[in-house]
Amino acid sequence: xxxxxxxxxxxxxxxxxxxxxxxxxxxxxxxxxxxxxxxxxxxxxxxxxxxxxxxxxxxxxxxxxxxxxxxxxxxxxxxxxxxxxxxxxxxxxxxxxxxxxxxxxxxxxxxxxxxxxxxxxxxxxxxxxxxxxxxxxxxxxxxxxxxxxxxxxxxxxxxxxxxxxxxxxxxxxxxxxxxxxxxxxxxxxxxxxxxxxxxxxxxxxxxxxxxxxxxxxxxxxxxxxxxxxxxxxxxxxxxxxxxxxxxxxxxxxxxxxxxxxxxxxxxxxxxxxxxxxxxxxxxxxxxxxxxxxxxxxxxxxxxxxxxxxxxxxxxxxxxxxxxxxxxxxxxxxxxxxxxxxxxxxxxxxxxxxxxxxxxxxxxxxxxxxxxxxxxxxxxxxxxxxxxxxxxxxxxxxxxxxxxxxxxxxxxxxxxxxxxxxxxxxxxxxxxxxxxxxxxxxxxxxxxxxxxxxxxxxxxxxxx
Length: 463
Ligand SMILES: Cc1cc2nc3c(=O)[nH]c(=O)nc-3n(C[C@H](O)[C@H](O)[C@H](O)COP(=O)(O)OP(=O)(O)OC[C@H]3O[C@@H](n4cnc5c(N)ncnc54)[C@H](O)[C@@H]3O)c2cc1C
Hints:
Strand content: 15-25%
Largest sheet: 7 strands, antiparallel
Helix content: 25-40%
Bound molecules: flavin-adenine dinucleotide
EC number: 1.1.2.4
GO molecular function, one term: D-lactate dehydrogenase (NAD+) activity
Keywords: FAD, Flavoprotein, Oxidoreductase, Transit peptide
Strand order of the largest sheet: 15-12-14-13-17-18-16
CATH topology of the domain at 96-212: Uridine Diphospho-n-acetylenolpyruvylglucosamine Reductase, domain 3
Number of strands: 18
Family: Belongs to the FAD-binding oxidoreductase/transferase type 4 family.
Protein name: D-lactate dehydrogenase (cytochrome)
């Protein structure tokens, strides 16, 4: 990292927008995962597409790597810069640029969080539904192809982005997509960038689909004697075509952690489903009747209804805080989060197999997940010793192998980063991996964008 580059960046953007302070670099040396941190040489705070373009043009000229940083909530070492260089912080790019209520879309800067966006939109009757648990930025969510509890009804970020503004490695600005709901012209560059984890370009603006706030919302909690019954109920709900708003699984250990952390009352430490029904009043009544019948059939232990908005918010807050509940459950331990996903018909086999793997490992590893998508997390809590982490990593590998053997993926929503690179060759066809490497070389020939991530054997080491 050259002093010349820092001087040039300060001259273009202003002294206060380029920090080499130890504390600021430390904050940008890691995300929320367990991966070893690595310090960037400097942190640049962008406020516009032009700032990003100027920064990338300079990094490209100096051959210095750049890692985009949204909110740093990613879990697989995505934002850690093993090769140092610039960490480009987009969290000050928080403007809502335009809203079109009649077309139900809006354009935002990449650093706005989904919580802040929904707060601004609340009087329009519209909302943005993709809800990962962390306070993530929309740009970071695009870059990791994120989803959350509402994906079963509204889709992931992929289904909710219409177009992007992206700065390429050499500083050129590219606009993709548009405001229309569909278009069959050209290669789909928008969706090439979605999930590219800052390795192909830096997203600065996003055109998003919005949805009407549902007229009626009802939530329920239902508990089961066995994990298999809870999972089978979720599968039945989907296979019967109930347009459920959310269906989330918490196993007995996660319930123990969440009951303590979120002060949930009246619930037992049993496998549990959190459910949400959305739509018009008649539709919600129909959905509830259908799900009650399925639950009764599967031996559910009755519904605990949450119709009051505050009660509902508390329930979903507890779900979104599941990760923090796990960290508080074993203070001082490190959390390694798996993100396996399988076709829903294979979900019971995977979840029950994983539960047996956890028991065999002797580790504490709560299970929580978006079972409506066939996706769940095992939050493996490991003592912070090399042996503890190796034990956790061995369990992680076992879970991924099980998912892959059932036709699944090692990550439904968190992405690859550093942590899941080891599984890319097991999951993807070798020709597909070659095409991914070729795309990387074309868009980032000098490998300055988030190097060392995503692909096994990155471009630098391939040369
Ligand atoms: C408690 C908790 C719960 C979570 N729950 C979920 C969940 O339910 N679903 C889910 O999908 N994820 C979840 N996550 C993971 C995380 O929130 C997501 O991966 C999120 O999308 C990351 O957004 P971010 O803004 O924090 O991105 P960061 O962590 O800052 O960055 C993530 C990656 O994207 C790149 N990047 C960031 N911004 C840009 C940009 N503008 N242009 C190009 N590249 C960029 C970075 O270089 C990095 O590779 C959870 C995390 C936590 C801590």
